[in-house]
């Protein structure tokens, strides 16, 4: 009887302990020491993985946000050391993508074009930006190891464009205070939906937390709440179609032999000057004019003229991903058109699956779990959510692009850099340019805006050549905008 009671107590305790391990602590930190060689220079750095609470107005803990924070050890003047705050997208996506494949001190094991290889794992990142800036990767609620802790908490406080921005701004205020980084030049970098997040955060931090930034970097940006519907939405896809057809060597010889960026400049002009007005005119466009446009679009995309005509010049991206290589028996990736997929049927108007995303998860998921457990000594039974449950997501009142513009107008130190891959069909590069034009139609802020394009897709850094170039672009952007000592933030007439 006594043994049975003891066994019951033991099993009960064991179950409770196991359950506790599946709930992250509200406030914790684990610190480890490492070294890395970047740009030929070897230096030591500290990695701090932790959780920091999200409180309500009464100070009650509602949730916890997990982060990983990397600081270079040999820095004496932290006040002048830039801090980069990094977010990914989704909106339910963790920060693993840029942490283990772009700016962080470790890279996942992939080939030079970004495809999975085995054994899975990680290696040093010789192109990390840790040589010029400290970095904190933030996982919003339900991504990474971040979780809601109070089951009665209102999900609307977290899962929406403006709610997300509001609680993260408060969270960042606490993080910056705890780590004594108020005097550091500060930067936000976001990828995909993360660009919506950081564009909104730029103004929210400025207006509600009185935290002013030196730079915002948008990697593969969304529409940032800037509307484009009807003819405009249809027309802006054309340069992406051309880039992808060029990559797959489907264009006619005179176009195929052209330099990609030179060709795209031509297609961009055609898109705005001829293609957009043609779609807008609808049936008022004469048959002769319509045929001329169809022929030119067919030339720029390699699609059949019948396909273009039957869709009234409005080719959806889903149809393009299915159609471009239909005769070859393949589909192409949504986020990166370099990736190939195989469908059950060659017929249809959209691919069966996202060829690129399945490839990426093939590599990233084992790498991040291995990395946190072995290198960062973060041992937990909480599942690392590469993608977490954050829906329904309230996308109403998205004014993030104009909010970023307002933050730049009010802060003469604030600069913007946009990075896009030419083969990204989800957040294509020409729409990223359109964002910038609409954010600053007068051109008064254009000297503080820059665009960088790369011969890859949504996560351009997965391709080694683009990783080298893109990290150097980030590095130069930080060096350029960190501001000289005693430089005044003011406009000159």
CATH 2nd-level architecture of the largest domain = 3-Layer(aba) Sandwich
Number of helices: 15
Helix content: 25-40%
CATH superfamily grouping of the largest domain: Alpha/Beta hydrolase fold, catalytic domain
Describe it:
It is a single chain. The chain is of the alpha/beta class and 493 residues long. The protein has 2 domains: 26-225 and 362-481, Alpha/Beta hydrolase fold, catalytic domain (Rossmann fold), CATH 3.40.50.1820; 230-353, no CATH class. The chain is 39% helix and 17% strand. α4 (193-208) links the parallel β9 and β10. The longest helix is centred in the middle third of the chain and has 22 residues, at 260-281. The protein starts with a helix and ends in a 12-residue tail after the last helix. The model is unreliable at 1-20 (pLDDT under 50).
């Amino acid at each position: 009887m006594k043994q049975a009671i003891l066994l019951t107590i033991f099993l009960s305790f064991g179950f409770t302990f196991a359950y506790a391990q599946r709930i992250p602590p509200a406030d914790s930190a684990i610190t480890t020491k490492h070294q890395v060689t970047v740009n030929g220079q070897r230096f030591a750095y500290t990695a701090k993985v932790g959780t920091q609470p999200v409180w309500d107005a009464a100070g009650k803990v509602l949730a916890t946000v997990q982060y990983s924070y990397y600081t270079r050890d040999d820095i004496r003047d932290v006040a002048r050391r830039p801090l980069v705050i990094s977010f990914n997208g989704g909106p339910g996506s963790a920060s693993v993508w840029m942490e283990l494949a772009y700016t962080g001190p470790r890279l996942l094991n992939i080939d030079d074009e970004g495809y999975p290889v085995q054994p899975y794992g990680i290696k040093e990142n010789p192109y990390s930006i840790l040589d010029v800036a400290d970095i904190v990767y933030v996982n919003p609620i339900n991504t990474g190891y971040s979780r809601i802790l109070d089951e009665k908490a209102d999900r609307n406080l977290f899962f929406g464009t403006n709610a997300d921005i509001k609680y993260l701004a408060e969270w960042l205020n606490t993080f910056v205070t705890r780590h004594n980084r108020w005097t550091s030049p500060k930067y936000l970098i976001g990828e995909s939906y993360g660009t919506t997040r950081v564009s909104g955060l730029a103004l929210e931090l400025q207006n509600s937390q009185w935290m002013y930034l030196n730079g915002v970097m948008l990697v593969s940006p969304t529409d940032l709440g800037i509307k484009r519907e009807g003819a405009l939405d249809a027309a802006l896809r054309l340069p992406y179609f051309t880039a992808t057809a060029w990559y797959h060597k489907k264009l006619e010889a005179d176009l195929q032999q052209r330099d990609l960026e030179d060709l795209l400049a031509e297609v961009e002009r055609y898109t705005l000057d001829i293609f957009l007005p043609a779609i807008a005119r609808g049936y008022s466009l004469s048959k002769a004019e319509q045929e001329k446009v169809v022929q030119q679009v067919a030339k720029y995309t390699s699609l059949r003229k019948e396909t273009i005509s039957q869709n009234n010049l409005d080719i959806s991206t889903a149809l393009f991903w299915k159609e471009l290589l239909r005769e070859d028996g393949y589909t192409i990736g949504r986020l990166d058109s370099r990736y190939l997929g195989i469908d059950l049927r060659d017929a249809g108007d959209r691919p069966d699956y996202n060829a690129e995303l399945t490839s990426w998860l093939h590599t990233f998921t084992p790498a991040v779990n291995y990395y946190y457990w072995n290198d960062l000594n973060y041992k937990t039974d909480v599942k690392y959510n590469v993608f977490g449950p954050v829906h329904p997501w309230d996308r109403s009142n998205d004014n993030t692009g104009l909010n970023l513009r307002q933050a730049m107008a009010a802060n003469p130190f604030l600069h913007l850099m946009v990075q896009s891959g030419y083969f990204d069909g989800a957040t294509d590069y020409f729409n990223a340019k359109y964002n910038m034009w609409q954010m600053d139609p007068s051109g008064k802020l254009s000297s503080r805006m820059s665009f960088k394009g790369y011969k890859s897709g949504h996560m351009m850094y997965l391709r080694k050549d683009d990783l080298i170039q893109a990290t150097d672009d980030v590095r130069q952007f930080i060096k350029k905008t960190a501001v000289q000592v005693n430089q005044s933030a003011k406009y000159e007439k």
